[in-house]
Design brief:
By secondary structure, this protein is of the alpha+beta class. It is built from 5 helices and 7 strands; from the N terminus they run H-H-E-E-H-H-H-E-E-E-E-E. About 40% of the residues lie in helices and about 20% in strands.
């Protein structure tokens, strides 16, 4: 293994390192998805149907974590600029470039094909997220009744004093769901344990930090 690694060109070493790192992150995200679905935290697909009437019986939908995370609306898995999509692109790009090294000797053409494959993979995953979201919406979950007092974790940092939206992952009806979130308190960092205190809209929650009590 060491001899093989030393025989690689510097560019190939970088490509292998990036590809293997992205693959490892993908595996970790997948494992966290299943752990989150079985436990009371982490990950999954995101969702929701927009509505401005808090009294409406709105359906809360989901995303899947690696992502099924994940894209036109930040809560529907159709947001292009996400860490999961970046990882998916690197996986498609990296493995394609590695596998085509001998069959496509022209570096420029090989890189072009790898980029195209990476983009296609991202699009396919985004479409998968959208399909899963649409499937979840048929569950008729009333977030206005089900989300209050649900606990979970901050997935993307939530600015304090309602200075912007972040994302949270909470468990409703034994399913981990991802929503946009705001807070009236200080900034809540990724990983902070939170509780939903109000449903602002079908896809946005008002949350507060769960303070640990030390006896």
């Amino acid at each position: 293994m060491i001899e093989w690694w030393n025989s690689l060109e510097p560019a190939m070493k970088v490509l292998w390192a990036v590809t293997l790192s992205a693959s490892l992150v993908f595996v970790i995200q997948t494992v966290m998805t299943f752990l989150g679905a079985a436990g009371d935290s982490d990950f999954d697909i995101n969702s929701d149907i927009d509505t401005d009437a808090p009294g409406d019986l709105a359906d809360g939908s989901v995303d899947v974590g690696t992502d099924v995370s994940e894209a036109a609306h930040p809560s529907t898995g159709m947001n292009l600029l996400t860490f999961r999509n970046f990882v998916n692109f690197l996986i498609g790009f990296g493995w394609t470039a590695i596998l085509l090294k001998d069959s496509v000797p022209a570096t420029g053409l090989r890189m072009l094909i790898a980029i195209v494959v990476g983009v296609i993979l991202v699009v396919l995953v985004m479409l998968l997220f959208k399909w899963l979201t649409d499937m979840q919406e048929s569950g008729n979950i009333n977030v206005y009744k089900s989300a209050i007092n649900c606990e979970g974790t901050v997935y993307l940092t939530i600015p304090g004093e309602r200075g912007g939206e972040g994302k949270i992952q909470i468990t409703i009806n034994n399913a981990v769901r991802e929503y946009a979130a705001v807070t009236d308190g200080p900034t809540l960092r990724t990983g902070t344990r939170i509780r939903v205190v109000e449903v602002v809209s079908a896809n946005t929650m008002l949350v507060e930090e769960i303070n640990s009590v030390i006896i």
